[in-house]
Amino acid sequence: MDVFHYPRPDLAASIVKQMTPDPIFGALSGLHLAAPRRTGKTTFLRRDLVPAVLEADKFPIVVDLWEDRSRDPSDILRRRIGQAIDDLKGSAEKALDRSRLRRISALGFSVALADLEPFSGTIPEGLERIGAGVGRDVVLVVDEAQQALVSEGGMDAMFALKAARDAMNLGEDGPRLFLIMTGSHRSKLAELVLSARAPFYGGSVQDFPVLGESFVRTLLEQLATAQNVSIPIDEGVAAFEILMHRPEAFMQAVRDEIFEAALSGEKLNLRRRAEAVRAASWGSLEAELDSLSRVQRALFEALMDGGEGFSPFSKPALEDVARRAGAKSVSKSAVQQAMKTLVEKELVWQPGAGRYAVDNQDMLDMHRRKKSQDR
Q1: Tally of structural domains, the chain
Q2: Rounded CA gap, 160 and 180, in Å?
């Protein structure tokens, strides 16, 4: 099958509509959108949202903090700001019409970070220069914004973005700055807004809408036209849900099922294929769980059931972990060591003193789905 893209113009328009100073309907303080990994968020940002921002006569900049995880998030942000400033050089002599802005914006997706120099000034200075250069409001999209949490520099960059937002939006004249933060880990993204010490304190995290039946229907209709292959919509929707609304995994399952059915002569069964893909994925996750000690696994399962309010060193928690581990009792020091190991294995992360949350979201999804099946 050719590369398939399912456009979401209505969703893009609804987000762009909030890029206004209107005190009721505007989002001057920024948007924070969370979606599970590989559910089409980044594709939407680049192929749907960016064109919609340009169509609204605003200038989009997209910065992906997962573009190179070996770099400090602040370095990535500064390099992309520097790139935009360089691309705008000479714009005073050229009319910055929509087509030229589109070309400048597109460069942000095609130039490697290593080929860029970081902007040497402050982040607010850089964004103000970009706003002045384009003569339009700037919409800065930071994808995988939760990556800023990994370093002091990353968090400093988030505070600098807040400062830039406030500076550019306080004046009545001149370009404004709108921030859109997206992430694939909801609780981590929330760390940017929940605490009084968070850079965007007072904001809220919204769930980014995942693809659904309309996506499946469009794909299967195009498939029927192109290859004369018919898959019932309800079977496709069930398979898509099994695969956690992940379009790439779904399309791969469709391709594999069509190919193998053609070889074997058997009837297409997309749901069975999706269940097999999920079983393979779960098998890998189960193998990781099997590598844990009894106390480590018991503690991790207790955390997954207890949520972010789980207090691992409380008396009820210690008793619960002991019960799950099949032990008479578990000491606080044993749980502390087990938690340290879970953090090192990136199964758990620690957003603050005494606070713990599940880091591996696929593991959490498997745990919840298996519990639901057992009921």
Answers
A1: 3
A2: 15
